Amino acid sequence: MPVEGNVTVHHVKGLHARPATVFVNTASEYESEIRVGKTGADELVDAKSSLAIMSLGVEEGDEITITANGADSEQAIKRLITVVEADFELHQE
Fold it and tell me: At residue 93, does pLDDT exceed 60?
């Protein structure tokens, strides 16, 4: 069963370049299928693809929806929300 979470992006550059790379690297640590998109928009893209994420044009202040489907989906959603809330500055655990 898919798990979903919403979080607001506060990073000054939104979800572009380095922040997108941090997001993708974190999502890639999980086996679940993970998708992300602007909250309220129809488009959800592969959260393990930097180009797909950057194509969303997420800016500072935009809310994003993250969905995950798989055995570790709850952990993935929690971690990705934490990464966004920390402005993509998390140290490796």
Answer: no
Options 10, 11, 16, 91, the catalytic residue? 16
11: annotated active-site residue:
no
Cβ neighbors of 29 (< 8 A, separation 6 or more) are 76, 79
Number of structural domains in the chain: 1
Q: CA 40 to CA 87: how far, in whole Å? A: 22
Give tens-digit pLDDT for 37-52: 999 999 999 999 999 9
In a domain, 92, yes or no: no
CB 46 within 8 A of CB 35: yes
* Structural domain for 7, as ranges: 3-85
pLDDT of residue 1: 81
